[in-house]
Design goal:
Layout: E1 2-7, E2 13-17, H1 22-31, E3 39-42, H2 48-58, E4 63-67, E5 72-76, E6 84-85, H3 87-90, H4 98-107, E7 109-113, H5 125-134, E8 138-142, E9 145-149, E10 159-161, H6 167-177, E11 183-187, H7 193-204, E12 208-210, E13 216-220, E14 228-231, H8 236-248, E15 253-257, H9 267-271, E16 277-280, E17 284-288, E18 298-299, H10 311-318, E19 323-328, H11 339-344, E20 348-352, E21 355-360, E22 368-370, H12 374-386, E23 390-394, H13 397-402, H14 406-411, E24 417-421
Parallel strand pairs: 2-15, 3-14, 6-7, 10-11, 18-19, 22-23
Antiparallel strand pairs: 1-23, 1-24, 3-5, 4-5, 7-9, 8-9, 11-13, 12-13, 15-17, 16-17, 19-21, 20-21
Length: 422
């Protein structure tokens, strides 16, 4: 099992390339099953979740070829014959549940394990299932697997209102509805860039999706989706993570390239309150740390609001700010597993319910800390970058799920991070 050993105190200076978005790539990969022939997807990041989902798709008989040098992925469903996604793969990542909508839309039948062994009921996955039923699917359960069937091989279409809005459920319904016989309507649909990118790419290959970028999506089913090329978007969460890292490290000056500021929603407006140097170009963002770092409180919200995937990083930055601040998460109220680890490093943070209260500025000192999930892990790396002395971040396999060669990128702009295999 790998860990990071970090020597803190170095500013970040130079240019950082932003990788393709994992959260946007996975829906595109699932959408490849809907096509009549091979689909080529560009700008695919080299991440563990990508490799896992490749294997999930291959189980169906679909050909998947990943050109790691060019970061291009080919999904060819012409050999698809096995309409199942097994538990031993689906349990590794919840996004594997996209196979329910993809297989239902492609062949009219899906047998997909519930992710993580959760039961049908008051769990996040029930929104997916209720939506598929509203589009005409027949849903049943069999020993921890969801069985979804389309009458006569194709869904009739229907209408469903998301409550609450969900990216995953919106993606699954889109995948199922694109090749339905009739028209489907998704109300209170997620508006995240991941969903917008999926809609735009599907329309390019022959789908008829209206309302892209709004909360009301109307999908007129088509007989077929053509082969062709899909383009993945830059990772907005990686962009935001590096912006925060530069702002919290004195003397930093980094330029992020191959990124899209427009996908950040209101994050840029919030970030501007930090009084850092901020220059936004067509596909670049430059951040220069300021002389002081003011305290800025945030509350997460659905897009275009402040992303829940950046709240741990923001809380870590606020340990270096002057004064008190709060970070409140309305999306995932229990997403604060990083707080005890920050305290081990010397941070003054208390957490209650869905809020972290931070008092800065804290002098962080290196220690051994434990990663518990993807975003918590990167927040501990950021804390290690600013801490005095040596910090060990254990279980960095969480990071490998969502940040492409994180240590290499940061080392290229001045960080001192070693990956050590224990």
């Amino acid at each position: 099992m790998d860990k990071f050993v970090i020597q803190g105190g170095n500013p970040l200076k130079g240019t950082l390339p932003i990788s393709g978005s994992k959260n946007a790539a996975l829906p595109l990969m699932a959408a490849g099953l809907l096509a009549d022939g091979p689909v080529t997807i560009t700008n695919i990041p080299l991440l563990n979740d990508i490799y896992t989902f490749n294997n999930v798709i291959r189980v169906t008989g679909t050909r998947v070829e990943f050109d790691e040098i060019r970061k291009r992925l080919i999904v060819d469903p012409t050999g698809l014959y096995h309409y199942e996604s097994p538990y031993d793969l689906v349990r590794k990542m919840r996004a594997s549940f996209y196979m329910a909508g993809a297989l239902l839309g492609s062949v009219g039948y899906a047998r997909v394990s519930l992710p993580g062994g959760c039961a049908w009921g008051p769990r996040p996955v029930n929104l997916h299932l209720e939506g598929l039923q509203a589009l005409g699917a027949e849903i049943s359960m069999d020993q921890g697997y969801v069985i979804a069937k389309a009458p006569n091989g194709r869904l009739p279409g229907g209408s469903f209102e998301m409550n609450p809005s969900s990216v995953g459920a919106t993606v699954n319904l889109l995948l199922a509805a694109v090749r339905a016989r009739g028209t489907s309507v998704i109300r209170n649909a997620a508006m995240e860039p991941d969903v917008v990118n999926l809609c735009e790419n599907l329309n390019r290959l022959g789908a008829r999706i209206d309302g892209t970028g709004t909360s009301l999506l109307t999908i007129e089913g088509v007989d077929s989706i053509s082969s062709g090329e899909m383009d993945n978007i830059p990772d907005r969460i990686e962009t935001g993570t590096f912006m925060i890292a530069a702002a919290m490290l004195p003397g930093s000056d980094i330029t992020l390239k191959n990124t899209m500021e427009r996908d950040l929603g209101t994050f840029t407006e919030t970030f501007s309150k930090l009084q850092t140097g901020l220059e936004i170009g067509a596909d670049t963002i430059r951040v220069q740390s300021g002389n002081t770092l003011p305290s800025v409180s945030v509350e997460t919200a659905i897009y275009p609001g402040f992303p829940t995937d950046l709240q741990a990083q923001w809380a870590t930055m606020m340990t270096q700010a002057d004064g008190s601040s709060t970070v409140t998460d309305h999306i995932y109220p229990d997403r604060f597993s990083y707080v005890p680890e920050l305290i081990r490093l010397g941070a003054n943070v208390t957490q209650h319910d869905n809020q972290a209260d931070i008092i800065g500025k804290s002098l962080l000192k290196g220690a051994s800390v434990m990663s518990t999930d993807l975003r918590a892990s990167v927040s501990l790396v950021m804390a290690g970058l600013v801490a005095d002395g040596e910090t060990e971040v254990l279980r960095v396999y969480h990071l490998d799920r969502g940040y492409e060669t994180l240590e290499n990128k940061l080392n290229a702009v001045g960080a001192d991070i070693r990956r050590v295999t224990e």
